[in-house]
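Is this the right way to post structure tokens for a design question? Let me know if I should format differently. Anyway, here goes:
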């Protein structure tokens, strides 16, 4: 299951920097995860200061 970023996102970019698959990009008001590229590793969730990335 791919991760998704909740509305708790503060657009800091920590998740995008941590993603080994480059599946995260800046969206409109928050970062977004490309479900097709996400490898479900959880690196984004481990680095987010507000726990915005969540497993679907």
């Amino acid at each position: 299951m791919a991760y998704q970023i909740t509305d708790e996102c503060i657009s800091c970019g920590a998740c995008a920097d941590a993603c080994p698959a480059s599946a995260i990009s800046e969206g409109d008001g928050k970062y977004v995860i490309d479900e097709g590229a996400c490898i479900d590793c959880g690196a984004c969730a481990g680095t987010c200061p507000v726990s915005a990335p969540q497993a679907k």
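Format looks fine. Someone answered above. Worth noting: The CA atoms of residues 32 and 53 lie 9 Å apart. The longest strand covers residues 3-5.
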